[in-house]
Each structure stands twice: as C-alpha cells, then as structure tokens.
C-alpha cells in the first residue's frame, strides 16, 4: 500500500511564506508525476502545481511567480514553497501522486494524501 504524508500547513499572515512537504512511502518503484491540489470551502478541488519525473512543471496561473514546486525523486518527496501568500490561498492542500508503479503486487495507481490546512489571515 502507498501512503502520502503531508506536513507544513498552518496559519500565516498575508505576505508570509510556508513550505509544504509530502513524502510517499510503500513498495514504490516509480512515480511519474507528483503535485499539489487545493480545495477551498464551497469550491472544487483545483490543481496548484505538478512536477514530472523529468522535472517538467505546471502551475495554475494564480500562483505563478509566488509558488515553487520541487521534488526529490530518490526520496519520493515533493515540496511546495509558497511565498507572498494571499487570503485567497486559504484552502486544504492535497498531495497527489500520479502514475505510481508499485512492486507488491506489480501495478500502476494514483494516490492522494489526507490534506493539510493552509490559512492566510491577519
């Protein structure tokens, strides 16, 4: 079984910074894409940022220039550095691993973390 463990959420003032981390564990052979989604109250879950195994990144327009995704492929860990945070960034942030090849049994799957709350407020 694959588990995604997120950390780093919390309360921060507008203009502040937070760094989210997500570590995938289990009998993992390969993860094609790791990334972050978020869901604000009353809204649909949306993509924030993703990174492929070869380093290609994708960001939603509202976070470009403020958020940076990075990844340690050997550790199956993804990070999200969030700077210049705004109240509209308030949401539960979910880690996502797409195209995960596991060895026991040998199969592909997609996985989600439990989510971590990010609140931007003065």
TL;DR?
This protein has no helices and 11 strands.
Structure, explained:
The model has no long low-confidence stretch (mean pLDDT 96). The chain is mainly β and 122 residues long. Helix content is 0%, strand content 61%.
Question: What percent of residues are in strands?
Answer: over 45%
Mean pLDDT: 96
Structural class: mainly beta
Write the element-wise H/E pattern from the N-terminal end onward.
Answer: EEEEEEEEEEE
For the CA atoms, what is the radius of gyration? 14 Å
Topology:
Blueprint (H helix, E strand, L loop, with lengths): L2 E5 L2 E3 L5 E8 L2 E12 L6 E7 L4 E3 L7 E6 L4 E6 L8 E13 L2 E7 L3 E5 L2
Parallel strand pairs: 2-11
Antiparallel strand pairs: 1-3, 3-8, 4-5, 4-9, 5-6, 7-8, 9-10, 9-11
Keywords for this entry:
122 residues; mainly beta; four-stranded antiparallel beta sheet; 11 strands
């Amino acid at each position: 079984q694959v588990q995604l463990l997120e950390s780093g959420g919390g309360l921060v003032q507008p203009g502040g910074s937070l760094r989210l981390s997500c570590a995938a564990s289990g009998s993992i052979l390969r993860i094609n894409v790791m990334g972050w989604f978020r869901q604000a109250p009353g809204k649909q879950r949306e993509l924030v940022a993703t990174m492929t195994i070869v380093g290609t990144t994708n960001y939603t327009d509202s976070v470009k220039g403020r958020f940076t995704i990075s990844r340690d492929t050997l550790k199956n860990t993804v990070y999200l550095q969030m700077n210049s945070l705004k109240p509209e960034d308030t949401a539960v942030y979910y880690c996502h691993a797409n195209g995960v090849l596991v060895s026991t049994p040998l199969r592909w799957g997609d996985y989600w973390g439990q989510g971590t709350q990010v609140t931007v407020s003065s």
